[in-house]
UniProtKB/TrEMBL annotation:
<dbReference type="GO" id="GO:0046961">
    <property type="term" value="F:proton-transporting ATPase activity, rotational mechanism"/>
</dbReference>
<keyword id="KW-0812">Transmembrane</keyword>
<keyword id="KW-0175">Coiled coil</keyword>
<dbReference type="InterPro" id="IPR002490">
    <property type="entry name" value="V-ATPase_116kDa_su"/>
</dbReference>
<dbReference type="GO" id="GO:0016471">
    <property type="term" value="C:vacuolar proton-transporting V-type ATPase complex"/>
</dbReference>
<dbReference type="Pfam" id="PF01496">
    <property type="entry name" value="V_ATPase_I"/>
</dbReference>
<dbReference type="InterPro" id="IPR026028">
    <property type="entry name" value="V-type_ATPase_116kDa_su_euka"/>
</dbReference>
<keyword id="KW-0472">Membrane</keyword>
<keyword id="KW-0406">Ion transport</keyword>
<feature type="transmembrane region" description="Helical">
    <location>
        <begin position="462"/>
        <end position="482"/>
    </location>
</feature>
<comment type="function">
    <text>Essential component of the vacuolar proton pump (V-ATPase), a multimeric enzyme that catalyzes the translocation of protons across the membranes. Required for assembly and activity of the V-ATPase.</text>
</comment>
<feature type="coiled-coil region">
    <location>
        <begin position="268"/>
        <end position="302"/>
    </location>
</feature>
<keyword id="KW-0375">Hydrogen ion transport</keyword>
<dbReference type="GO" id="GO:0051117">
    <property type="term" value="F:ATPase binding"/>
</dbReference>
<feature type="transmembrane region" description="Helical">
    <location>
        <begin position="636"/>
        <end position="657"/>
    </location>
</feature>
<dbReference type="GO" id="GO:0000220">
    <property type="term" value="C:vacuolar proton-transporting V-type ATPase, V0 domain"/>
</dbReference>
<dbReference type="GO" id="GO:0007035">
    <property type="term" value="P:vacuolar acidification"/>
</dbReference>
């Protein structure tokens, strides 16, 4: 069962000639079941044989990303690949029909990508330049038109004075230009200071951004205008000489604002001629825009169109192929090159050796030069932990992700993800228990399942992120609905689905008969009784403790399964058995007396207190209980509690002492044997051997120890120091004993969250609907509709979003801390299969989510 435990792995060596390395790696990637081991993780990628190829692939991907921005800018919709296997088959067919080595196809694509990038970016730059030219021309037209309105005809009709000395006093000059809108106040202030108030300044908004946007829309351009709002300035000052000091000062001020300054014509004829000239220039620029835009869109359309036999746009075709090539060379760098031979190591799931050999034969057939494709050989790994690999599908994936977020399972240990499929949504349902809210969540999951394909096409849908977790949402909604029926809670209202066993009589509720039992869930009469809150609180609190202890006991049992599977009998007898007995004799006994109390009726207010019973079990071990849980049998209860208390007390030193003593004895024996002089020459012999030709990892460890002047005795002493063993076991014992109390109390969150959910639903119902529906007439109808909208918004905003997240996080904590710490090591590493299909599928998901 590959989901209960990870698949068994085999360790192989791979030897392939350099000439057929690309073909072999290309075939093995189609299998997708090899986990390559890096021969030197400390070696930087830049120092590896194919670092240059990886860099070339990165450069090509960067160029494609630049083209993708232009495609989005012009709203060109790409056709993404829907069948990765078909695309990979098309890649292989294209490479085979080229009659050239397969690795040379990337060289052709790289050259084509470079040419298309240069061509399209040049066309785009030309279009931007022409658009900027149009903006300048349009701005000049606006400036001249607005300046004419401000200055009027009088500026062209200034009379020459009779006295030449009075010329400068009667003649006025002007400066016209454009500045940014945000510089308006500062510009006026500087002009006033420079001219000492002897100049008239008029500023008017040009609304250039609106005109630019309208012009772009007229050309059907989707580029956003990023120009800042600008305004026209007109300065009229005394004196019209070109070399006047005041004019020179004003020109320096205007030029310092880095905007254009426009020469205003001296006559009306020149002004009209200038306007006609600008109109002609604008028309020519618009014609150029049309031509350039047409050429650019034609080039972009070539990227969007599908090639024959390809199920996606040509742009996607090139991008995915470059990604595939980069992935191949990155994994090829994990192999070490010796002469003309590549040697590497990989993990393979058990039973797939035949498929790998078949792929090697296919590689020889696809290799036109018929070079040998190498061989694989199984070897025994030395001090290397195999990766953890599970066969996941759309149902199990989200639950395994919940587990992996805490930590990856150790190789071959029990996988908590299998149990999380049921326990996680169930504990969520205990906290979120409500018939209406659970049913809405269930419908949301059903919608995600059956309308998956339609939702994937809507890239802006808020449900897209929930699609991978649709089965988790369905189960969460189902168990919330199920527990809501058990609690008989529908928006804080109890439903009388099967007929109550109680009838009202003289203002009190009387049971019809002792044998009458409500068929499923809580009798609705409790909602109408005055002790409803006390009864439901007591029931939910005890139920949460029972569920928590069962959950933790199951985790301890999984620890026993792990110890037996790994044949770790020391942990089985010195940890698993005492931990199981301790939990059963303490909190398991508490659950039992809770159930016994539920099954018995007590008279004359002799109901036993569960808390008092548990406290007296420790503080008064020899006193008979005053109110025994077992009716009329206090001696039996006393004997049981004494036996259970004795077992629980004995389990504490049982967990603490035997394991360190056993491991400490083994450690001392290892120290004596490793200190023997017969082991010393091994280091000296290996020191003079050839390091590069030795593949034994233990040999490298020996050399490292010798270099650090450490003997085998010192190394073994560090690994099995008895002091560390005692400290570790003491921490484990204290953590388990105290954790048993704290973890059991932590499961009370099942009761607390359920209580909070029910109380919030009741408050929303009482404040919004209760009493508002009795008002008749038109006003009552409007009020009812108004308060119903408020009720719906509060329910969705608080209970269906915030409370769902809150219950989800608390269920997550119960699994990570209270359940998994009983057996889960979480120190493994995931199996990373060398697979084109996985690579392209993951990349397509990220592309579709953008």
């Amino acid at each position: 069962m590959s989901f209960f435990r990870s698949k068994k792995m085999r360790y192989y060596s791979l030897v392939i000639p350099r000439e057929s390395a690309w073909v072999v790696m290309n075939e093995l990637a189609r299998l997708g079941q090899l986990h390559f081991v890096d021969y030197d993780p400390q070696l930087p990628m830049i120092n590896r044989p194919f670092a240059n190829y990886v860099k070339r692939c990165d450069d090509s991907l960067f160029k494609l990303s630049c083209l993708e921005l232009l495609l989005k800018e012009f709203k060109k919709d790409l056709n993404y690949c829907e069948n990765v296997d078909g695309l990979l088959d098309h890649f292989q067919e294209v490479q085979y029909n080229r009659m050239k080595p397969g690795h040379t196809y990337f060289d052709e694509l790289e050259s084509e990508i470079d040419q298309k990038k240069i061509q399209i970016q040049e066309q785009s730059a030309n279009l931007h330049n022409i658009l900027d030219r149009v903006n300048v021309i349009t701005e000049q037209q606006l400036v001249l038109e607005n300046a004419k309105e401000i200055l009027g005809q009088s500026m062209f009709q200034q009379q020459t004075p009779h006295n030449a000395n009075e010329y400068q006093q009667l003649k006025f000059g002007q400066l016209i230009g454009v500045i940014d809108k945000e510089e308006e106040v500062r510009f006026k202030r500087i002009i006033f200071r420079v001219t000492k108030g002897n100049a008239w300044v008029q500023i008017k908004d040009l609304n250039n951004e609106q005109i630019d946007n309208s012009m772009r829309k007229s050309f059907h351009l989707n580029q956003n205008n990023t120009s800042q709002p600008r305004c026209l300035f007109v300065i009229v000052y005394p004196g019209a000489e070109e070399s006047g000091s005041l004019r020179m000062k004003l020109m320096k001020v205007c030029d310092s604002f880095n905007r254009q300054r426009i020469e205003y014509p001296n006559s009306m004829d020149q002004l009209q001629k200038k306007m006609i000239d600008l109109t002609q220039q604008l028309q020519e620029a618009k014609n150029l825009i049309e031509m350039t835009k047409k050429q650019l869109e034609q080039s972009l359309d070539d990227l969007v169109l599908q090639k024959q036999g390809c199920n996606c746009s040509y742009f996607e075709y090139m991008r995915l192929y470059v990604l595939k090539e980069k992935y191949l060379y990155v994994n090829l760098n994990y192999l070490t090159m010796r002469g003309s031979i590549f040697t590497g190591y990989f993990w393979l799931p058990e039973g797939l050796e035949v498929m790998v050999e078949e792929k090697l034969r296919n590689a020889m057939q696809n290799n036109r030069d018929h070079y040998p494709t190498g061989q694989i050989q199984e070897i025994k790994p030395q001090s290397i932990t195999p990766p953890t690999y599970f066969n996941l599908n759309e149902v199990t994936m989200p639950f395994q992700e919940i587990v992996n977020t805490y930590g990856v399972p150790r190789y071959q240990e029990v996988n908590p993800g299998l149990f999380t499929i049921i326990t996680f949504p169930f504990l969520f349902g205990v906290m979120f228990a409500d018939i209406a809210h659970g049913f809405m969540l269930f419908l949301c999951g059903i919608y995600l399942i059956f309308w998956k394909k339609q939702l994937l096409k809507q890239t802006d849908s808020m449900f897209n992120l929930m699609i991978p977790f649709r089965y988790l949402v369905v189960l969460m909604g189902f168990f919330a609905l199920y527990n809501g029926i058990i609690y008989n809670d529908y928006l804080s209202i109890s439903l009388n689905l099967f007929g109550s066993c109680y009838t009202p009589e003289n203002g009190e509720w009387k049971r019809e008969s002792k044998d009458c039992v409500y068929p499923f869930g809580v009798d609705p009469v409790w909602q109408a009784s005055g002790s409803s809150l006390n009864f439901m609180n007591s029931y939910k609190m005890k139920l949460s403790v029972i569920l928590g202890v069962i959950h933790m006991l199951f985790g301890i049992l999984m620890k026993g399964v792990n110890t037996l599977y790994f044949k770790n009998y020391v942990d089985f007898f010195c940890e698993f058995i005492p931990q199981l007995l301790f939990m059963i004799c303490t909190f398991g006994w508490m659950d039992l007396i809770i159930i016994v109390k539920w099954l018995n009726s007590y008279e004359n207010n002799t109901d036993p207190s569960i808390i008092e019973t548990m406290i007296n079990q420790v503080l008064k071990p020899f006193d008979k209980p005053v109110n025994p849980v077992f009716p009329n049998n206090p001696e039996f209860q006393l004997q049981i509690t004494q036996i259970l208390t004795l077992i629980a007390v004995v389990c504490i030193p049982w967990m603490l002492l035997p394991k360190p003593l056993i491991l400490g004895g083994k450690s001392d024996k290892n120290k004596v044997s490793m200190s023997d002089s017969q082991y010393q020459p091994l280091v000296l012999e290996k020191q003079v051997s050839d390091i590069d030709d030795d593949n034994n990892s233990q040999f490298h460890n020996d050399l490292q120890n010798a270099a650090n002047h450490k003997s085998f005795t010192e190394q073994n002493h560090e690994q099995h120091d008895s002091g560390e063993i005692w400290v570790h076991q003491m921490i484990e014992t204290i953590e388990f004993v105290l954790g048993g109390i704290s973890n059991t109390a932590s499961y009370l969150r099942l009761w607390a969250l359920s209580l909070a959910h029910g109380q919030l639903a009741e408050v929303f119902y009482d404040m919004c609907l209760a009493g508002k529906l009795d008002t008749g007439g038109i006003i009552g109808g409007f009020l009812g509709g108004y308060f119903y909208i408020i009720f719906a918004l509060l329910t969705f905003g608080v209970l269906m979003t915030m409370d769902v997240m809150e219950c989800f996080l608390h269920a997550l904590r119960l699994h990570w801390v209270e359940f998994q710490n009983k057996f889960y090591k979480a120190d493994g590493h995931l199996f990373n299969g060398y697979s084109y299909k996985k690579l392209l599928n993951d990349n397509l998901k990220s592309s579709n989510s953008k």
